[in-house]
UniProtKB/TrEMBL annotation:
One of its GO terms (molecular function) is metal ion binding. This is Protein SCO1 homolog, mitochondrial. One of its GO terms (biological process) is mitochondrial respiratory chain complex IV assembly. The lineage of its organism: Eukaryota, Metazoa, Porifera, Demospongiae, Heteroscleromorpha. Keywords: Copper, Metal-binding. Gene3D superfamilies: Glutaredoxin. Belongs to the SCO1/2 family.
Length: 76
């Protein structure tokens, strides 16, 4: 899920998640470039943090981790 909001809300979220973004130059007014942190966060249905995944994890490792978290959540 991607999130957006006002500039103030975005700044609050970037601080809370300890991530960054930087809007880059663009020659086309209908397009834009954004450099940003490449971390994914897993939160449970209650909104509680469970895990984060960086570029050092494979798709298989991530999907296995998510499946395990889902099983644990369903048991509780």
């Amino acid at each position: 899920m991607g999130l957006t909001g006002s500039e103030e809300e975005i700044q609050t979220a970037t601080k809370a998640y300890r991530v960054y973004y930087s809007i880059g130059p663009s020659e086309n007014p209908n397009d834009y470039l954004v450099d940003h942190t490449i971390i994914m966060y897993l939160v449970d249905p209650k909104g509680d943090f469970r895990e984060y995944y960086g570029q050092n994890r494979t798709a298989e490792e991530i999907s296995h981790s998510i499946a395990n978290h889902m099983l644990r959540y369903q048991r509780n």
